[in-house]
């Protein structure tokens, strides 16, 4: 069955694009969870939704517009937090609600693009084009390489921001970098699993890995494995039982989290 | 030798509330200075200003002869923040080795990857705080006293010239505190300058050489011996701390 599926180029594209998204999202997600910023990805999906609506409204390519808007919003969230002295999730709540409002308003004004907009909300991994595939590979590789190059700095800022600042690290710029990488990952994921579910791939594999990992590097490795397994098994189940691929991927990651949680508890007994 | 840290005419406020007023202070090589004062007296704020975490409203700070704005060699200052142990997240899967490695980042250039020499420095720092053999353990699995030693190892791994500690023994039992201060005394005897913000003069007195009393203004700065015989002592530490012995 698996071999038969692999013969189809649409399945190959779906699997490769999904794996790149899952690994980049899972690794990035561990940092976001530990910075207590797990909802940043979810918030940025709302902004990306506004970007897609805006692009469809003006009949231009959705990806660059969504990426631009999500990146600007990521910086705005950081600034609102810093200047207005708000908790992180409050700033995410404000900016993301505004994004969703823009998207809904535009969709309502131009009634003819609702179907297109829905495909970004729920994703369609089996309809990934070559351009989207290569774009996903390049962007996901960029996210992973950046995390590798700034690994110790971002880890230090995540662990103890005040001490990182005292040692002269550019904490604000590292925060901005992390937010930008989140925006990129959200935009990669919007066609693959859809905006509604991309934040799940940013949070669930990392949360599962945190149940089991004995060191930070092992946690990143486990998160990547869990993300990849979610996509591979989810896609296979979707094909086997004729389910929506994005739903099957996220449900698989949920099952992996449950297994990791129970295994973690059992080990501590 | 010129002072390592000079604070000149320093003022700082949080909003309308004046926290520090006209602070003048010099810290020399080899000093073991305790900054004392009641809650809200500005002790931690002064430390954060010296570390560049806050910007002074007025006044100047010189670190190793350079104005703080131009100072870049932050590895020369080791820092152990307030409530470091209490802030340890039990979910964070960071190991002792990873925590200590953070102390090397200020000394490295991009891309900041660890070399075998860095790993040797980490092991050496852990040895100095008697935590060798713990490098692969998760930080959250250690006791409060052991975690505190790991934070000290992080602060000294870059071979700094000054170690700044902000209420370092909060949440640590008395016996562990004594061993901890003995360790600081040992570092100081080997030439490391130490600045400690604390309200607990009773514990640190056997190692402290200088005392600075802060209550918005610097009301006393002198040797530990002078401080013990000064009427300022009762004002700052209360009657119950008046029995102080140098061991």
List keywords for this structure.
heterodimer, A: 269 residues, mainly alpha, ABC transporter involved in vitamin B12 uptake, BtuC, 13 helices, B: 247 residues, alpha/beta, six-stranded mixed sheet, four-stranded antiparallel sheet, 29% helix, globular
Overall description:
The complex is a heterodimer of chains A (269) and B (247). Helix content of chain A is 85%, strand content 0%. With 269 residues, chain A is mainly alpha-helical. In chain A, helix 3 packs across helix 10. The relative contact order of chain A is 0.17. With 247 residues, chain B is α/β, with parallel strands linked by helices. Chain B has eight helices and ten strands. A six-stranded mixed beta sheet of chain B has the order 6-7-8-3-9-10, with helices on both faces. The radius of gyration of chain B is 18 Å and the shape is globular. The two termini of chain B are 29 Å apart. Classes of the chains: A mainly alpha (269), B alpha/beta (247).
Provide a short characterization of the protein structure.
The complex is a heterodimer of chains A (269) and B (247). By secondary structure, chain A is mostly helical.
Which chains make the largest contact?
A: A-B, 25 and 32 residues
The gross shape of chain B turns out to be globular
| Quantity of strands of chain B, as a count | 10
Question: Which stretches of chain B of 5+ consecutive residues score pLDDT under 50?
Answer: 240-247
Oligomer: heterodimer
> Shape of chain A, please?
globular
Q: What is the rounded distance between the termini of chain A?
A: 40 Å
Helicity range of the residues of chain A?
over 70%
Tell me the name of the CATH class of chain A. Mainly Alpha
H/E element string of chain A?
HHHHHHHHHHHHH
Given as residue ranges, the uncertain stretches of chain A (5+ residues, pLDDT < 50) are: none
What class do helices, strands and sheet pairing of chain A give? mainly alpha
CATH topology of chain A: ABC transporter involved in vitamin B12 uptake, BtuC
Main sheet attributes: strand count, strand direction, barrel closure of chain A? none
CATH superfamily of chain A: ABC transporter involved in vitamin B12 uptake, BtuC
């Amino acid at each position: 069955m698996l071999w038969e599926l692999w013969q189809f180029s649409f399945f190959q594209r779906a699997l490769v694009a999904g794996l790149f998204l899952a690994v980049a999202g899972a690794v990035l997600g561990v940092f976001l969870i530990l910075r207590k910023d797990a909802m940043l990805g979810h918030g940025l999906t709302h902004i990306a939704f506004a970007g897609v609506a805006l692009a469809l409204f003006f009949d231009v390519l959705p990806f660059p517009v969504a990426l631009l808007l999500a990146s600007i919003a990521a910086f705005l969230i950081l600034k609102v937090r810093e200047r207005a002295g708000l908790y992180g999730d409050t700033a995410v709540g404000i900016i993301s609600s505004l994004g969703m409002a823009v998207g809904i308003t535009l969709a309502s004004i131009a009634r003819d693009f609702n179907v297109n907009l829905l495909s970004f909300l729920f994703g369609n991994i089996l309809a990934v084009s070559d351009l989207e595939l290569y774009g996903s590979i390049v962007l996901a590789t960029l996210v992973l390489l950046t995390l590798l190059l700034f690994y110790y700095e971002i880890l230090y800022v995540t662990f103890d921001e005040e001490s990182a600042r005292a040692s002269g690290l550019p904490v604000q710029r590292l925060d901005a970098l992390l937010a930008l990488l989140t925006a990129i990952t959200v935009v990669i994921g919007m066609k693959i699993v859809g905006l509604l579910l991309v934040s799940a791939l940013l949070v669930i594999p990392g949360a599962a890995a945190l149940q089991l990992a004995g060191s930070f590097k092992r946690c990143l490795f486990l998160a990547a494995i869990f993300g990849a397994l979610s996509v591979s098994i989810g896609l296979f189940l979707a094909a086997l039982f004729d389910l929506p691929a994005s739903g099957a991927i996220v449900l698989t990651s949920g099952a992996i989290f449950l297994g990791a949680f129970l295994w973690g508890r059992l080990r501590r007994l | 030798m010129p002072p390592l840290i000079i604070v000149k005419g320093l003022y700082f406020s949080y909003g309308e509330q004046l926290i520090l007023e006209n602070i003048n202070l010099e810290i020399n090589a080899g000093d073991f200075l305790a900054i004392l004062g009641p809650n809200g007296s500005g002790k931690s704020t002064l430390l954060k200003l010296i570390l560049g975490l806050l910007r002074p409203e007025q006044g100047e700070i010189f670190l190793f002869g350079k104005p703080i704005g131009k100072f870049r060699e932050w590895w020369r200052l080791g820092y152990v923040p307030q409530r470091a142990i209490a802030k340890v997240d039990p979910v964070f899967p960071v190991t002792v080795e990873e925590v200590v490695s953070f102390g090397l980042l200020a000394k490295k250039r991009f891309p900041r990857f660890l070399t075998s020499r860095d790993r040797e420095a980490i092991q050496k720092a852990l040895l100095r705080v008697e935590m060798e053999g713990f490098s692969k353990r998760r930080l959250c699995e250690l006791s409060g006293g052991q975690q505190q030693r790991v934070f000290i190892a992080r602060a000294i791994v870059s071979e700094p010239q000054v170690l700044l500690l902000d209420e370092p023994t909060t949440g640590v039992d008395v016996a562990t505190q004594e061993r901890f201060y003995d360790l600081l005394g040992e570092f100081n005897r080997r030439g490391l300058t130490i600045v400690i913000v604390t309200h607990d003069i009773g514990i640190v007195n056997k190692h402290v050489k200088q005392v600075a009393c802060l209550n918005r203004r610097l009301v006393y700065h002198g040797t530990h011996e002078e401080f013990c015989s000064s009427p300022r002592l009762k004002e700052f530490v209360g009657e119950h701390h008046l029995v102080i012995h140098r061991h």
